[in-house]
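Capsule polysaccharide biosynthesis protein
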Amino acid sequence: MEAPKYPMPTGLYAIPHDRLDLRPDSEVDHDILHPKIVTNEKNIWFFWHSGFLTMHPCSQRTVRAWHRRFSKAGWAVRLNNRQPFSPLNVEIFLDTRSEEVFPRSFIDGTIGGDYPLQHMSDLVRFPLLLKYGGVYADVGLTHIGDIDRAWSDMIDNPASPLEIFSYNCGTVNERFLSNYFLMSKRYNALFERAHKLLLKLWAADGGKTSTEGMHASPLLNGTELLGSDLTYGAEGQTGCVIPLCKARMLLADYIIQVQVMSLVMGLVDKDDGWDGPDYCAKHVYAIEYIEGSQLINPNTKWNGLRAFELMSLQLPKEGETESSPEQKLAQEIVEECLRRIFAFKLAHGMILKMYNETLGSLWRKHVSSDCIPGTYVGYLKHAMLFWCPKTLPLRVEFRAIAPFKRGSLI
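Predicted structure tokens:
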């Protein structure tokens, strides 16, 4: 765990080593592969269909980092899979034969389309949180901020009205909670309704095997399509290979859970006693998603190769006083991310239809390029483990806007 001496930006503090699990990777991996039984709601859920040992090395390092950061605070990292005889097979935690939990195509193993494994991952998120509570996160999300403090101050605090902690992928007047990070206690009212609606979409037309076209379902009438701000990522990018209008429809299908949550957040159903806009204003703590998790992208004009090259640069060696312009830019990006964002989100899926490469895809392609000591990514990864921001991120101040829909959810 030895590392070069990196400069700590203002606004952060060093986490005492006794609050971190700094054992060798092999020992941490043993704990990840042999989880304890669920005894409380402090669970950090991930999903990788074929299991931890088959993950890209950079994703394994991300999951280890979660364990190292939060296990001593009582959090259990649980990376579910669909492998027979695995103690982390999702069927041990959920009833994978029930159509009240999963759509028929999940049960039968017939999910298809362009992103079957991503959809499988999406479909376990609501059920795990509803039954057990805690955090669901993508394996491409590495944390900088203090999950345990957010949980104890907001979600698990009897004096707090807050029930959900996530990111909002839009303006203060839009309702697009991300599905790459969701925190709640068990039986959350918004997630219960969102899961019910999601299952209904999958059951349409005798049962869907993919999410293609789901954004156009009458059940989602009233919601806007996610991705109204995609234009800022396309300007000047030669990797943009599809029209933006089509990209928005593809994105809405790809992350259909976000569209589903948007409908529920904008729904008023008096018979059910549900007022989504009022619930959001009172009970949802959302962070603006670019500011909170993807700040590196606008700082590199959404150019994955540019971000990769900057993060791969060596820091000035000890005794050197001058930095190149590129080194100065990389330093500014790393320090800005550490001061301002709560987590570091990498994208690998549908975004590759927009851009041929992302920082995440390049870290997967170039094995070990995400953890070289003395580089700016080495600096970033060191900080993510050993340092923490002193404050929690600012909340998007939702207000009770006009509902998208009045009447029954289904």
